[in-house]
Design goal:
234 residues, alpha/beta, Spore Coat Polysaccharide Biosynthesis Protein SpsA, Chain A, 8-stranded mixed β-sheet, 8 strands
């Protein structure tokens, strides 16, 4: 008899009072039955923690450090389950996400993976073109960012030493190490991501900035230097 993999969903947050309620509400049906949700706050000054504590069955820890990599490591350090799924506060999982993860990891050669992504259906066509481009890049180069709900076997995460506490690019750096460790699965099910960053800064301007930052990282510029050009949007 095959034992079903258990999953810990870890959500790093910072001043996410506008997003966190909808994200957690979408996860409540999955709680129990081998699924836990851990929210790691990085020192929010708004009502993020207060709102999160209203949800029964969700563990909240306050790291006091506004660094996404460090927050995700803190969540992983208290996680109990076989698989770690790292979810941004403004990202919603598809209905079959956990089933898809378990199916992918039923192959022992797969160490982890990510999802493709999409924007809400009613958003401008330009955003859907952006999503298609990101998904194509993901399939071709087998790379991922944190928006794509990266998942990994808990044992592999421990062996890799977790995320490096970089100010930027911690997700890309981790996924690149994960690829070298073993196979990664790119799941066709799509997470829905918020368009807030693209809307605030402009769709194509944001696309150019994102690729410029990735190119700079590839050239060897430090994440701390690149962070100066990155726009945090809450």
């Amino acid at each position: 008899m095959t034992v079903e993999l258990t999953i810990s969903i870890i959500i790093p947050v910072l001043n996410e009072e506008r997003q966190i309620s909808g994200t957690l509400a979408s996860l409540t049906e999955a709680l129990g039955g081998g699924v836990e949700v851990i929210v790691v706050d990085g020192g929010s000054q708004d009502r993020t923690v207060e709102i999160t504590k209203r949800f029964e069955g969700i563990e909240v820890i306050e790291s006091g450090l506004a660094n996404r990599g460090a927050q995700m490591n803190a969540g992983a350090s208290i996680a109990h389950h076989d698989v770690l799924l790292f979810l941004h506060a403004d990202v919603k999982l598809p209905s079959r996400a956990l089933t898809a993860i378990r199916l992918a990891l039923s192959d022992d050669r797969v160490s982890g993976g990510c999802f493709e992504l999409r924007f809400p259906e009613d958003e401008h066509r330009s955003l859907h073109l952006v999503a298609s481009g990101i998904n194509l890049r993901t399939r071709l180069f087998r790379t991922a960012t944190g928006d794509q709900a990266i998942f990994v076997r808990h044992s592999v995460f421990t062996e890799l030493g977790g995320f490096e506490p970089l100010p930027l690019m911690e997700d890309i750096q981790f996924f690149n190490r994960l690829k070298r460790f073993g196979r990664v699965a790119i799941l066709p099910e799509k997470v829905e991501i918020s368009p807030r960053r693209w809307i605030q800064r402009g769709v194509w301007r944001t696309v150019l900035l994102m690729y410029a930052l990735r190119f700079g990282y590839w050239l060897g510029f430090s994440p701390a230097r690149l962070k100066r050009y990155f726009l945090d949007v809450r």
